[in-house]
Amino acid sequence: MNNPTIRNWLGFSTLALMLVSLFMVFDYVPPDAEMGIAQLIFYFHVPLAWVAFASFGLVAIAGIFYLWLGDQLWDDLGYAAAETGMVFCTLVIVTGSIWAKPIWGTWWTWDSRLTMTFILWLMYGGYLMLRASADDTPQVARFGAVIGIVAAMDVPIVIVSVRMWRTIHPAVLVTKQGTHGLEDPRMVWTLLVSLTAFTLLWAWFLMLRFTQLRTRSRMAWLAGRIALATAVASDPK
Amino acid sequence: MSGFAAVLRKDLRLELRSGESTLALLALSMLVLVVLVFALGAARVRSVDAAAGALWVAMVFAGMLGANRALLAERDNGAIRGLLLSPLDPSTLYAAKLCAAFIFMAVAEVGAVILMVLFFNLDFDASMARLAPILVLGAIGFSALATLLSAITGRTRGGDMLLPILVVPIFVPALIAGVKASAAALSGAPFESMGDWLKIMIAFDVLFVTAGYLLFEHVVGGD
Question: Which of A82, A134, A152, B179 would bridge with B156, disulfide CB 3.0–4.6 Å?
Answer without folding.
Answer: A134
